[in-house]
From TrEMBL, chain A:
Residue intervals of the ABC transmembrane type-1 domain: 100-306
The protein, known as: Putrescine transport system permease protein
PANTHER family: INNER MEMBRANE ABC TRANSPORTER PERMEASE PROTEIN YDCU-RELATED-RELATED (PTHR42929), PUTRESCINE TRANSPORT SYSTEM PERMEASE PROTEIN POTH (PTHR42929:SF3)
Keywords carried by this UniProt record: Cell membrane, Membrane, Transmembrane, Transmembrane helix, Transport
CDD domains, alphabetized: TM_PBP2
Transmembrane segments: 26-48, 94-123, 135-156, 186-208, 229-254, 285-306
Primary subcellular site in the record, as a coarse category: membrane
Localization in the cell: Cell membrane
UniProt family annotation: Belongs to the binding-protein-dependent transport system permease family. CysTW subfamily.
Membrane topology, as annotated: Multi-pass membrane protein
UniProtKB/TrEMBL annotation, chain B:
Superkingdom as given in the UniProt entry: Bacteria
UniProt-recorded name of the protein: Putrescine transport system permease protein
Transmembrane segments: 12-32, 66-90, 102-125, 131-155, 176-198, 235-254
Entry annotated with the keyword Cell wall biogenesis/degradation: no
Source organism of the structure: Pseudochelatococcus lubricantis
Gene3D superfamilies: MetI-like
InterPro entries referenced in this protein's UniProt entry, alphabetically: Bact_Polyamine_Transport, MetI-like, MetI-like_sf
Membrane topology: Multi-pass membrane protein
Key word Transmembrane helix present: yes
Occurrences of domain ABC transmembrane type-1 (ranges): 62-254
Subcellular location: Cell membrane
Length: 318, 263
């Protein structure tokens, strides 16, 4: 998409940068390219290879280890021992399948909740007087810049049995016994919705703010009731924002680790937590790697959808 | 007329912002509570701020985090800006689709996967885990955010300025430093700030790739938070909230003032 960003009258060959010395021209893409090859692609390849290995009680805790002393023969010998046992184990074990589906379910429900809370906010922000909007925008962005961890942490003090929420509810006489919220899925939902709300509100606001509101006026002048005008005009026009917000939230929530670890209970199944437990608690590096590969496959789908939507949006904007 | 602000909108905003801010305000209130217990108000006190000041592990972790954040953001700004230039200005080079993919991928990669893959990489090359491995890991994932931020600025760039300079005989490298860089500087600075914030906030990747002896502030907070609430963390969090509020509100006031004359 960035290729097309060049002004139409200019071809890359006549662009100013083509006058740069050849060597320098090569260096600009080469440096970040090399960095990413070393620190992104290579580690990724290692995870993939590790997912096909077997755990071992040794140092390092897996087999086969490539014996580089034997040269290519050692590499081939190691490759021959790789197999998909880990993936068969994952598919066979109820726990892993459940954690994958549970992550998807948690992410889907959270995204829906985020939409239900975020849409009215973004809608009201877009309708606010123009001089108020920057202030409202800063108010949404501010939590976005504050530490994610601190925002999750803040809820512990509220949701604990002796925390603020229960204290208030008991003193109001609404409940007798403290509600057990921490260590349940409800706590995870609250934490997730809280942390990702700016990610949902900002893209929604961006589309709603640009919307042509005279369309609503026209519809109402022609006798369309407000609710119908909302469903037939506002929602369809906000669809790009809804899709962007939903995917911006859904994708990271699937692999979320910090929130279920701090607010969820031992039974809360999230695939990010499963991966980390396999690695740190069971020290099963190959199985953790296999979980990582599965998690990536789960995330790839929504990412492809997102890319497709982005490309379409950019084409439309041009 | 149709942008009428109704009662429904007021309610939505009130509840929405209350939801966003009440937990943070509660946290700040707890930090001034003399009692360690959550449900007892022991009176106003700043003792947790004082004891925070004497908490050596937390202060060391803070120093580590600031150093890692600054270093990784600086290196990432260099590589990220080059990556943005490569994406916008270099339409043809070997492996460009792979390069583009690698710039965008780390942003959607689940943190646990990034952490695991980098750890396995550092183990396999025999790197000693600690300060430098965390710095390298943070550089890698933050440079992609910088590349995207700078890229958006470069796309909207008026290239006739560069052409004019070069037509008047300015050598390319000098053109870059006197024309291009000053014009994209705001986005480079924004990218640096974003990278610094992301690094300062990261707990997952850092816990994977760090070694014994090197702890960062988020790791310390996370480990204490797992055991429940700690008054010192309340105090620390409140201080961090204060810093972010001052920076965000300050910078939005500055940009607002900068934008005023053009209107």
């Amino acid at each position: 998409m960035s290729d097309n960003a060049l002004p139409a009258t200019q071809t890359p060959e006549t662009a100013p940068f083509s006058r740069t010395p050849r060597l320098l021209r090569a260096v600009v893409p080469a440096l970040p390219f090399l960095w990413l090859l070393i620190f992104f692609l290579t580690p990724f390849a290692i995870v993939f290879r590790m997912s096909l290995s077997q755990p071992a009680t040794a140092q390092p805790p897996y087999t086969p280890v490539i014996d580089w002393a034997q040269g290519l023969a050692g590499l081939w010998a190691a490759l021959g021992e790789l197999n998909i046992d880990n993936f068969l184990l994952l598919a066979d074990d109820y726990l892993y399948v459940a954690s994958a589906f549970s992550s998807l379910r948690m992410a889907a429900v959270s995204t829906l909740l985020l939409l239900l809370i975020g849409f009215p906010m973004a809608y009201a922000m877009a309708k606010a007087p123009e001089n108020r909007r920057p202030v409202l925008l800063v108010l949404v962005i501010l939590p976005f810049w504050t530490s994610f961890l601190i925002r999750v942490y803040a809820w512990i003090g509220i949701l604990k049995p002796e925390g603020l929420l229960n204290t208030v509810l008991i003193s109001l006489g609404l409940i007798d016994q403290p509600l057990q919220i921490v260590n349940t899925d409800i706590a995870i939902f609250i934490g997730v919705v809280y942390c990702y709300l700016p990610f949902m509100v900002l893209p929604l606001y961006a589309t709603l703010e640009k919307m042509d509101w005279t369309l609503i006026e026209a519809a109402q002048d022609l006798g369309c009731p407000p609710w119908r005008a909302f469903w037939r005009i506002t929602v369809p026009l906000a669809l790009p924002g809804i899709a962007a917000g939903a995917l911006l939230c859904f994708i990271p929530i699937v692999g979320e680790y910090v929130i279920p670890e701090l607010l969820g209970g031992p039974d809360s199944l999230m695939i990010g937590k499963t991966l980390s437990d396999e690695f740190f608690k069971n020290r099963d590096w190959p199985l953790a790697s296999a979980v990582a590969v599965v998690l990536l496959i789960i995330v790839v789908g929504p990412v492809m959808v997102y890319r497709e939507l982005e490309t379409r949006r950019l084409e439309k904007a041009r | 007329m149709t942008r009428r602000f109704t009662l429904f909108d007021t309610t939505a905003l009130t509840f929405g912002f209350a939801f966003l801010y009440v937990p943070l305000l509660v946290l700040i209130a707890y930090s001034f509570n003399d009692s360690q217990l959550l449900n007892v108000w022991g009176g106003f006190s700043t003792r947790w701020y004082v004891s925070l000041w004497h908490n050596a592990p937390l202060l060391t972790a803070l120093r580590n985090s600031l150093a890692i954040g600054f270093l990784s953001a600086a290196i990432a700004t260099f590589f990220g800006t080059l990556a943005a230039l490569a994406l916008v200005r270099y339409t043809r080079f070997w492996g460009r689709p792979l390069f583009t993919g690698m710039v965008y991928a780390p942003m959607v990669m689940p943190e646990v996967v990034t952490g695991l893959s980098l750890l396995l990489f550092f183990v396999s090359v025999g790197a000693e885990r600690g300060f430098w491995t965390v710095t390298l890991a943070h550089t890698t994932f933050t440079m992609c955010y910088i590349a995207v931020v700078v890229q958006s600025r470069l796309v909207a760039f008026d290239r006739t300025l560069e052409e004019a300079a070069q037509d008047l005989g300015c050598p390319p490298v000098r053109t870059f430093f006197t024309i291009t860089l000053p014009l994209i500087a705001p986005s480079v600075a924004a990218g640096f700030l974003l990278a610094f914030t992301l690094s300062l906030d990261d707990v997952v990747i850092a816990s994977f790739v760090t070694g014994p002896g090197t702890s960062t502030l988020p790791i310390e907070i996370f480990n204490r938070a797992r055991r429940g609430l700690s008054p010192e963390i309340n105090a620390l969090s409140s201080l961090m909230l204060l810093v972010v509020t001052v920076v965000v509100v300050g910078s939005s006031l500055v940009t607002k003032r900068a934008a005023l004359p053009t209107r």
